[in-house]
Amino acid sequence: MYWTLAHRAQKMNPSVIREILKVTERPGIISFAGGLPSPKTFPVEVFAQACAKVLRDDGRSALQYAASEGLPALREQVAAMLPWPVDPAQVLITTGSQQGLDLVGKVLIDPGSRVLVETPTYLGALQAFAPMEPVVEGIASDEHGPDLHSLRHALGVDAEPGDAPQAPERRRLLQLDLDPAHDFPRFMYVLPNFQNPTGRSMSEQRRAALVHDVQRLGLPLVEDNPYGDLWFDVPPPAPLTARHPEGCVYLGSFSKVLAPGLRLGFVVAPPALYPKLLQAKQAADLHTPSFNQRVVSEVLKDDFLGRHVPTIRALYKAQRDAMLDALSQHMHGLDVHWNQPDGGMFLWARLPPGLNAIELLPHAVEKGVAFVPGAAFYADHADPRSLRLSFVTATAEQIQTGIAALAEVIRQHDGHSA
Amino acid sequence: MYWTLAHRAQKMNPSVIREILKVTERPGIISFAGGLPSPKTFPVEVFAQACAKVLRDDGRSALQYAASEGLPALREQVAAMLPWPVDPAQVLITTGSQQGLDLVGKVLIDPGSRVLVETPTYLGALQAFAPMEPVVEGIASDEHGPDLHSLRHALGVDAEPGDAPQAPERRRLLQLDLDPAHDFPRFMYVLPNFQNPTGRSMSEQRRAALVHDVQRLGLPLVEDNPYGDLWFDVPPPAPLTARHPEGCVYLGSFSKVLAPGLRLGFVVAPPALYPKLLQAKQAADLHTPSFNQRVVSEVLKDDFLGRHVPTIRALYKAQRDAMLDALSQHMHGLDVHWNQPDGGMFLWARLPPGLNAIELLPHAVEKGVAFVPGAAFYADHADPRSLRLSFVTATAEQIQTGIAALAEVIRQHDGHSA
User: Fold this and answer.
1) Are residues A332 and A198 in the same domain?
2) A345 and A221 in one domain?
3) Quick one: A39 and A128 in the same domain?
4) Could you tell me if B89 and B232 lie in one domain?
5) 3-state DSSP call for residue B190?
6) What is the pLDDT of residues A29-60, one digit of tens each?
7) Is A291–B262 a contact, with Cβ atoms under 8 angstroms apart?
8) A320 and A218 within one domain
9) How buried is residue B85: exposed, middle or buried, by Cβ count under 10 Å (0-12/13-18/19+)?
10) Is residue B235 part of a domain?
């Protein structure tokens, strides 16, 4: 071949699941497979007014090159939005929070570096880290988040959670760095709120214990929070970063509370990391579109999110309830289980023993309904029975029809494979 | 330290030159240091209309997630704009052409890979490639572009240019790959049109000879063309990629013909590379803002660029002439030399022997005028006497005043250092 590819390019392959999902894009399919927010929630008219105002007031500046850090006004608005004291100087505006993951990977991952993730975890993060060639390890997780026994085991510490040793053990662990088999992980990647794919949230107790452990052990955290504002009844507990800002990088996004098509996200990084992330940002795309930053900064004025986000919460809660109702009704008598997320866009289900979600998908598509097999979201040891259902884009009627069709397909195949 | 950085993060440092240039941002300074297009050329009203139309016609789609490849309509428009037959399937829309450089680096550069560049070359490309840890080598260049003797020497081939051997020699060279000292370069990065920083263009003869050589030797090219449309009297010769599409990646941008604040660029890649670049793109930021793509697609309709770009050419030509006049007038009697670019935004000058542009800059800033020391733009063996002057953002009066001040500073220091 004329071109010699970088070694890391071998890690860049189209996801098998993505290929499978192409069949779900057929017209007429009721899709619970998407990861898209409901377009009903996009404040189109407010954007139109903001675009017009930004171009009228200072169009030439809005269309010029800008600083890599981001628009100062937007960085201040982001800092003020967050539920702990954040210096705007620690805010880096990114081209979607996906770019935050790319920058974190570039700055923190060497080929062969260990990175810990929840089980399951966000597929896009695995893809963002992959070009930097980490060894990604899934930490066993339950409905409250990552299991701290498994985490401590992965770190080579076998004491009970909460009994974590002080600095001396951290030093001992660092010495073990010389032995590749005991290489200390560069960070753990976590999504504490209404996680994609499962919709689960970390309990207050788990958050407190996790932060307690990672502080003592010196394990950095990368906290991703695209869904935290989409709670249904009560806000989630405080972010991990709020409890331990020096040891965490925090990623946020406007994709779920405003609109994803603007690609606006942000990173909050401690002073020890910010300059390197900034350099990586400058090299990656110079800066996030200045026009988009000004438009969103304009939209955010006068507490627009304070009025807008409650409407998204109400819609998504009704959508979740419609799906829970449909599941209760149609899965009756089947050994199918699902959770009841308190926010976000996704619900996690598990097929009867013997069934495989990847194998079931083509049959479901034949009956006009689609989902994402959960196996897509595991770094290792995938659960073949799991599947992700988005409840936010289908209508209540489609949810009824789609879940009924899914139940029928499961019923048909349940006997076969058991 | 709590955080362990990736090895590549050592390569991510603020540019010394960028730090120096901070002093040039003082109010009242006449700056020829900027790399910004003139905001006078931004079609603000046309953008405002396009934003309104896109949001009115199909706002929800414009604000939703979109395909990583880019908006199909925009990919078709880009393909149709280019002066050789391009399949829209080979067009990847990027978040500015800077992102194209980042993706090329990720897909083609291993740590220690050799990358060839012109002398001097675009600083942003060096920064984009740096995190992938290449060994960058400057190929000696003259006013017509890279010197082919130097190129052939770098490739370990000592025959005359044009006498390049056929495939057998390429095989011999590939065998030498096993010897790190003879590692074949992954690609050569070239800016054939009105290059940043020098403003020079590659002659037709040099283009033909370069393509002839790289085809025979199997050296891939990365062709960056942000300024090609900004010619003053006659269009530049055909791009290198037009002559050898299978062996070239082509990077283009809307930053200089429309506005940089939208961050819209594109890559045209051969089928052997496109899927890997696409995967890297998806991991980097999922997709370029769909709203921006739709707005620019709307702006491009009815040959808007055909009417708009000639106005930029006329403005920049008048600006260049103003600077050439000022230089002739004020540098009289000084051993200062400069070129006469046929397009683009920059002019390249050389101080009298013994003077150093980095050392001169603070004195120039004291007199109220700024430039970029040329040393910023070299991969190696910088010419300390060179400097870059942007002629597009200052007014004709500022150009007169600024060049007069610069001449005065040179005159004052000429005796001292010689």
Assistant:
1) no
2) no
3) no
4) yes
5) strand
6) 999 998 899 999 999 999 999 999 999 999 99
7) yes
8) no
9) exposed
10) yes
Q: Which of A207, A209, A217 is nearest to A185 (CA)?
A: A217
3-class state of residue A268 by DSSP: strand
| Antiparallel, parallel or unpaired: β A265-268 and A248-253 | antiparallel
B129 → chain A, closest CA residue:
A283
pLDDT digits (tens, 9 = 90+) for A67-115: 999 999 999 999 999 999 999 999 999 999 999 999 999 999 999 999 9
Tell if the CB–CB gap between B12 and A99 is shorter than 8 Å: no
Any idea how long chain A is?
A: 418
B377, B369 contact by CB (below 8 A) = no
Q: Which residues touch B75 (CB under 8 Å, ≥6 apart)?
A: B69, B88, B89, B91, B93, B266
CB contact under 8 A, B261 and A65: yes
Tell me how far CA of residue A246 lies from CA of A17, A86, B104, B386, in angstroms: 37, 11, 34, 44
Chain B: residue whose CA lies nearest to A262: B289
Instruction: Quote the domain boundaries for residue A329.
Output: 7-43+306-417
Q: Looking at CA atoms only, how far is residue B343 from chain A in angstroms? A: 20
Domain count, chain A: 2
Complex confidence, ipTM: 0.93
Instruction: Please say whether the dihedral angle defined by the alpha carbons of residues B209, B213, B216 and B219, taken in this order, is positive or negative.
Output: negative
Q: What chain A residue is nearest to B256 in terms of C-alpha separation?
A: A64
Residues comprising chain B, all counted:
418
Say which amino acid occupies A260: P
Q: Give tens-digit pLDDT for B128-177.
A: 999 999 999 999 999 999 999 999 999 988 655 555 444 445 544 554 44
A13: confidence class by pLDDT, cuts 50, 70, 90: confident
Task: Among B281, B303, B325, give the residue marking a domain's end.
Answer: B303
Q: Are A283 and A405 contained in the same domain?
A: no
